[in-house]
Design brief:
This protein has helices at about 1-10, 25-40, 50-55, 60-75, 100-120, 130-150, 155-180, 190-215, 220-245, 255-270, 280-290, 290-300. With about 300 residues, the protein is mainly α. It has 2 domains: about 10-95, no CATH class; about 95-300, Up-down Bundle (Rhopdopsin 7-helix transmembrane proteins), CATH 1.20.1070. The longest helix has 30 residues, at about 220-245. It is elongated and about 70 Å long. The two termini are about 25 Å apart.
Length: about 300
């Protein structure tokens, strides 16, 4: 089933609608790209190897060069920095479009890899939650790998992998939260947990289908993730309140504290600003802010 779902996901990743940013519509940007392609792209691809390995082509390289050129020109004339294709015009590094977002995504992935090793070392296979936690690690590894790929090179495929990976990560979090918080791992709840699992799979499939075949809607995607994440956060906050009241142990408060940290970090997504030093923006800082909570979460598990 997992292989079938993965195959279907890959097949649907290539159909897309494209929305423009303000920078895309600038006449000087359009003229720059057109001139660059006409003068630089007549010969076969002569880009450096590291750019070709990241699937840069002459036209896409022209697009990047013009983004940088127009941005510098606007800054010199006292104008604002504009986004192009939904992104700030970062200074790439070795062909990586958003180097700091790549770095922080990889560090988040490392946090899950480290957590996976902790789980295998410290939780016995007979523990009722072990398989749920192990799968959480693998989902996290996949999610942050997709994030790193997307920020390294923005293409239709990598964007789809990033958004659908993030959705899977949030929805899986909602799947296993009630199993742990409400102690549904007990044998008498086996059928209910199975039905809950299929409900989550159906919801994820519907989410992917809507985005891919009905409308690629960034606002809807964000709203869906916020709603699912909020439901999960309510469950873990309930866990912290009830368990701390019962045990008076600091570990019982950890989920609530981690949830608070993540909510505060999420505010960075709402307070977007042009990149500092052409490299670090609010989105990169949000990825940086989730590394420590991930490590802390595995310590709790």
């Amino acid at each position: 089933l997992a292989v079938l779902l993965l195959s279907l996901l890959v097949l649907v990743l290539f159909t897309t609608d494209v929305l423009a940013s303000r920078g895309d519509k600038l006449p000087e940007f359009k003229a720059c790209v057109e001139t660059c392609i006409e003068t630089e792209c007549l010969l076969p691809n002569t880009l450096p190897l590291h750019l070709r390995l990241l699937l840069w082509t002459c036209p896409s390289n022209c697009d990047y060069i013009c983004q940088r050129t127009i941005t510098q020109s606007r800054l010199h004339s006292g104008q604002s920095i504009e986004q192009f294709h939904g992104k700030w015009p970062f200074q790439r590094l070795l062909g990586l479009q958003e180097p700091f977002s790549v770095l922080f995504s990889l560090l988040n992935g490392y946090a899950h890899l480290r957590g996976l090793c902790q789980l295998r070392r410290e939780l016995p296979p007979s523990h009722p939650m072990t398989r749920y936690y192990i799968l959480f690690s693998y989902v996290g590894l996949g999610t942050w790998t997709c994030s790193a790929l997307f920020h390294a090179r923005d293409t239709v495929l990598t964007e789809r992998l990033d958004y659908f990976g993030a959705g899977a990560n949030v929805l899986y979090g909602l799947y296993y939260a009630p199993v742990r918080v409400l102690r549904l791992w007990r044998p008498r709840f086996r059928r209910g947990v199975r039905a809950w699992g299929w409900t989550c799979i159906a919801a994820y499939a519907a989410h992917v289908y809507y985005l891919q075949f009905v409308r690629w809607d960034y606002t809807y995607n964000m709203a869906a993730n916020v709603v699912v994440g909020a439901a999960m956060n309510v469950l873990w906050t309930y866990f912290s309140v009830t368990q701390y009241s019962r045990h008076k142990r600091f570990w019982a408060a950890w989920p609530g504290l981690i949830v608070t940290w993540l909510i505060m970090a999420m505010s960075l997504e709402l307070l977007d600003f042009p990149p500092v030093a052409d490299a670090i923006d609010a989105h990169a800082l949000w990825h940086a802010a989730t590394i420590i909570p991930a490590m802390w979460w595995y310590r709790f598990l």
